[in-house]
Amino acid sequence: MKCVSFLLVFALLTSLLNSRCHGYHILVLGVFPFYSHLMMLSVISNELVSQGHNVTFVTVKTTRPHPNLNLIINKDVMTGQMNPEFLKNLGRADSRELTRMLWSLAKNGTDTLLATKELKSFIDAPLDDPKRPKFDAIISETYFLHEALSAGFAQKFSCPLINFQPLVSPPNVAYMIGDPHNPAYMTDYKMTFTSNMNFWQRLENTYFSVYSTLYQNLIYLPAMDKIMRTHFATVGASN
């Protein structure tokens, strides 16, 4: 009996010592030119490759090279839309107008981005082509202007979608991901209030929480869904 137990332990230890862990093939999407966000995605990408993973980073800004990092510089088609007049209006907009401006930028930008040569090469690439990469996971700012991009590529490669959230989750995002959100003390980042609100500020914050969630579900997301189905029709997103 002791001999059998010893052999079992020996076999287990041998299998553990001989086992190997393979790194993931990860697609990181950072195609909007918000450089504070891209810096964080760059840090994440470099940390992943340092841990042995293979990362394809599609971005508009270069980063530190690494043998495991496939850096694809996508054409920056967004900076032209964010002209000085747009940025000035963005700075003086109230919370509702800011929401509409950002989501309008996302809709126009996503439609333009998905038509670029770099992203179309991923969309149109046959999955049975051995020369094309297969991805085990995708990292993107799914709930900050990247909804159509993230959902489309996740379906294309049939892999998990990992959300990178650069901001405190606003109520409309909390609604989608199941996070608790109490507008009595949690303010939307587009508001100027702190967590120490009076009654009227709480009422206004609650109103905006409801407004942004309804606007997202009834207007914004259907528009992004239409964009996704248009560009990813060849991979089944039209179904």
From TrEMBL:
Gene Ontology molecular function terms on file: UDP-glycosyltransferase activity
Superkingdom field: Eukaryota
Extent of the signal sequence: 1-23
Keyword Signal carried by entry: yes
Key words of the record: Glycosyltransferase, Signal, Transferase
Similarity annotation: Belongs to the UDP-glycosyltransferase family.
Protein name per Swiss-Prot or TrEMBL: UDP-glucuronosyltransferase
Organism name: Cacopsylla melanoneura
